[in-house]
Amino acid sequence: MTEPAAILLNRAAASAGNRRVARAVALARAALEADLHVADTRDIDELRAWMAERLGGYATVVVAGGDGSLSVAYNLLAGQPGVTLGYIPAGFGNATAHLLDLPSRPEALAELIAGRDARPIDLVEVAGRLALFAGAGWDAVVAGRYHAAGARRLIGWAGAIARSVPDLARRESVTVEADGNLVHSGPMELVVVSTTPWYGRGLLVNPGARPDRHRLTLRVYRGPLARFAVDAVRWVAKRSPSAQAIGAGEVVVSTAGEAITVQADGDVVGSRSQWRFAIRPAAVRLIGRW
After folding, report:
1. What is the DSSP letter of 31?
2. Please, what's the b/e burial string for 10-26 (b: 16 or more CB within 10 A of its CB; e: otherwise)?
3. CATH number of 129-285
4. Which residues on neighbouring strands pair with residue 65, listed in sequence order?
5. Bridge pairing between strands 84-89 and 60-65
6. Cβ(91)–Cβ(152) under 8 Å?
7. For the chain, percent helix, then strand, then coil, each to nearest 5?
């Protein structure tokens, strides 16, 4: 008997309407004999409530959306080892597609998903939320402006970056502790904590991070602007940046009182003066080829 399966399609995701995504959804649905549920929202709370109403009873859940949509599923399915999670990239950044080495051809992607070859993955826990990657500082500012302007794909992303360039000259002063040890005190542009090396659009921001080591990988991009710009070029070129990798089970980022903004899987979590990031080992089972 075929295990019950569902495909959750978020049409509000940036590329959810293109033919490749539609083809992958159709093929995966046929292969899994899956129910199809369709939403159309960029509001995380609304999407979470919608998914929560539809996840019960399924052994395989495939999310067709962006990293944010997939992250909602992580948080709802964490701790349920009997559920397998699949992903059809339909967002703008699609960072998780790079981690999972997902094929771009709809036929190959549907075949991979139908095989249900899943592995447990570790996630970052911050402020009660689970994610593959989280950032404190400049990237969270960019993410906030991108979504506030309507998340308009490449033009919106480029505009959010352009509006945020002046912020790079005003580096936040923070202390960063890894497992109780001080690893940085002073200005920074960006602090990355993740279990994946990839950010959206295939940017290699945190090389060496893996979702199966039961450890977080931390990088502090200190700046200043000229040095940070060189590192950003290295992300695009998929070369190791100047910032060194640090492994930890827990990371704490603090300021002297000024609030610092944090994003998780591309969505802003909030702003506060102290953030704690912890490892959540083997949180969900995810189909992929890493």
Report:
1. H
2. bebbbebeeeebbbbbe
3. 2.60.200.40
4. 89
5. parallel
6. no
7. 30, 35, 30
Residue 120's CB is within 10 A of a number of other CB atoms, namely 13
The CATH class for the domain spanning 5-116 reads alpha beta
Name, in order, each residue with C-beta under 8 angstroms of 35's C-beta and a sequence gap of 6 or more: 4, 5, 6, 7, 58
Question: What's the gap between Cα 105 and its chain centre?
Answer: 22
d(CA 216, CA 208): 10
R_g of the chain, CA atoms, integer Å = 18
CA-nearest of 282, 284, 270, 247 to 128 is: 270
Q: 266: closest CA among 98, 99, 50, 72?
A: 72
pLDDT-flagged residues of the chain (< 70): 1
Residue by residue, DSSP assigns 217-286 as: EEEEE---HHHHHHHHHHHHHT---SSPPEEESEEEEE-SS--EEEEETTEEEEEESEEEEEEEEEEEEE
Query: Helix count (H) and strand count (E) of the chain?
Result: 8, 18
For CA atoms 247, 97, 73, 4, the dihedral sign is: negative
The domain spans of the chain are 5-116, 129-285
Which run of H or of E encompasses 199?
strand 198-199
Looking at residue 78, its pLDDT comes to 95
Q: What is the pLDDT of residue 203?
A: 95
The predicted-structure confidence for 183-223, as pLDDT tens digits, reads as follows 999 999 999 999 999 998 899 999 999 999 999 999 999 99
The pLDDT score that the predictor gives to residue 4 is 96
| Sequence-distant (≥ 6) Cβ neighbours of residue 138 within 8 angstroms | 164, 167, 168, 189, 190
